[in-house]
């Protein structure tokens, strides 16, 4: 049986109807409400009609197929046949009756006696299946009619005969085989209209617009409700987590994310780092009071950790030579940009060193290169798919032995001498702005052919109080940033392990060493001798977003948290 | 050179002086304050004297050793010799000059010309080292005096000659070799008196008493300040994180903990589970409103997640067949017991199933057995060490193929028929109390020879709204607990994947399906067909505490959070 001509209409329909509405909010709200109510009524009517039809069919006493289809949402149905998975389907299966579970990706009736389906397993294994009336074989007219009326994204239990496709089926991933359905039960139903179609979920977002109220799901820039438009806003994606997640695009990004996380742990495990868990609830803001979430905690207040910095150091002080931790960190920053979130995942490490902090810096450099090379190897398929939606240039890495390490002063000199006009006067004593970073990234790419490099020896003013100054020059520090496509991806340094020095540096920065949280921190270094150490922390979300050149860090994360979004 | 007789005095001194004070709080406070101030003054005087002595020595112009010792806390000192690690030390090193970094575990002077040290590397690699005046070799009288006055737990850079020990050194782990020191620099200093000695840190806690105020470090049951008592309260341990962590006991527990975590991920990775990250900040209390931390969140409120339950299900709904996550969960419960914490680590998994939820139950059973068997294999040394401090019986596992799975009703029957008198009337329709659980655990151990078993088919009243009822009997559910030493360690179930059923069950439990958080949850199941699924969640802290039979779950955790403790 060859591919029916209209089978892929729903998924690949070109843009039709309105572009995202730009009209005033009031009008949009009213329109959306009216549309919603109309749809609700329509759906209710459809449901009643379908139920009546099924009742009539099964009640007539003439349905020879009545045991071969129907509802299996609660009472399980069982099929006694070989369980197959589409990715393993081969010539050996031809002529066999098999069993599978799959979503309806598309379906249509051809006349009254034949239903066509595209069935989907996992993210993107699809196969063509058909069901034709055949009373001898227990496939009744009622059964076909019922099956043809099932909604896309319903989840099915299917018995079918595997057949060779007479010609390759272009619309499906399984091209050489098709299924002739003999039994079909619905294990979970989908609604008549989806909040976000799979096709739209798999396209680049149309805008960064998100919901207005934190508690609501009322994205007004919905372009999908009418089924016509080709893409949806970020808000529509996030309000429809199920369909957003079913898109191969979303799954590919998730795979890249979790691979970064795994490669991070893998490298550090192999280099004798011990994992530990830092707490989220802490008694005082660990790194200054800005951007800290506070909460009532029994008779006092607690803060949410902004980083595991102090705890990594406590582990080193406690005798672990090398540690890492992976966990959530929080920033109460009211920034509604594609670069900000209030909760993100920190990948943090800390280690003793022997002679010089460059041991730490070089360890982190090797770690990052391991991650980037691992991504190329383990996620090439996913990266290619993501690039087809969100284009990006290949992420250039330095040749082994030719890693690029510039001092901050060298970087500034490069900017002054070869950068854009506006950066001809940048200073060695002040931190860089984002545009400066990007300009320097472009210069480094041009000059050294890499998108990844290290900037070392930051000025004192640019680093927190626990950063060790260069013993030879107190205006610069033993601190480094790691850069990706011209943006900072990791910040790290040698830490101060001498309590007197730590207190002096706190005072220089205007902090009180006796204040809650800081006192306990300094006490740790006073309580016993703590070896010299340093480390760094990576924001997982940013690594993923920037490696893939995603337009928003919110796309790199399963459940992004912003000032305007806490649900679902 | 043989072992000096008093070398191990500080670490292994037997119990002397007071037992933990039981007197009234006011008196204790005053006493503690006075003691603290006296100590402070004493320490300051000592410091001044030591500095003056060193200054005099180095200023005399006669110190032939002056370049071979001193401060290296900021300006690094470098030694040009082979870097050795104690665990690798062997006969090949004898006669060689080597370099190492280590803590002073103990030291003492023998006359004015000889200093003895026990040096420690990592948690428990110790070696005897000595430094005798030898002006020819650049070891001056001043140098020996200075070195002999260094405090225990200072961190050193050492150059030394490796020698064979004339007789085995009993007090050190390295028994056959000793070091003759030629250079010694202090990279980090320790105080004259430790808040907690290593010996005490390595003993069982003397009491569960913790600090009074959340923000303070004023544990009043300190038994260590005078150096005499053999053990310390939980509060003293937690107020002295550095010394607490340096104890091999603490490190052994941490190793067991992180091994459970790793084995969990390892088993699930091998069984095609995908890891994901659930958010901590959520817009509404996910599982009823009790025991939820709330915080101001820009223009609204946020809650801290009590479990990743909803998010695991969203992942399954989104097309992942099997998922797991590892992360912090929070309970705002004002319980000050050794069993409660406000933040702990959840190990959670969820999976689609095909025919029956027992597929999920059996997967989790295999997972737990994998973890327990892995612990025996990978942590036998640590478990033995922990047992020497906190005794526990061997954790009995069922033979392969003889796993114990009881229904809740069977468990209750066992209790009624063979349990203690007071449980002769337990009902099949009500959840068990902790004493009932423990009694049943004892019966199962006696009857089946295992400390680990599954209790299945819990009564409806005992389970949350999202638990699937048995389709054949709505009074029981497709829900199970996993038991360890008679205590619940994992709770899990088949979940409801049908939105109408979910709403009905919410109403039955007195919840409003339209309330914030619940509405978005039900919407997920309405938005597309979601396959049948189930899962479970383990509290990592409890698994560790109960496997090791620790007297408090707070000992299983690096930074326990309780209503009274948020620092350090």
Folded structure, characterized:
Chains A, B: GO terms for molecular function: aspartate-tRNA ligase activity; ATP binding; RNA binding. The structure is a homodimer of 568-residue chains. Chain A folds into two domains: 152 residues, Nucleic acid-binding proteins (OB fold (Dihydrolipoamide Acetyltransferase, E2P), Beta Barrel), CATH 2.40.50; 308 residues, 2-Layer Sandwich (BirA Bifunctional Protein, domain 2), CATH 3.30.930. Chain A is elongated. The two termini of chain A are 43 Å apart. The N terminus of chain A is likely disordered. In chain A, helix 7 packs across helix 15. Chain A has 568 residues and is an alpha+beta fold. An eight-stranded mixed beta sheet of chain A has the order 8-12-13-20-19-18-15-14, with helices on both faces. Helices cover 32% and strands 22% of the residues of chain A. In chain A, strand 4 and strand 5 form a beta hairpin. Chains A and B meet through strand 7, helix 6, helix 7, strand 8 and strand 9 of A and strand 7, helix 6, helix 7, strand 8 and strand 9 of B.
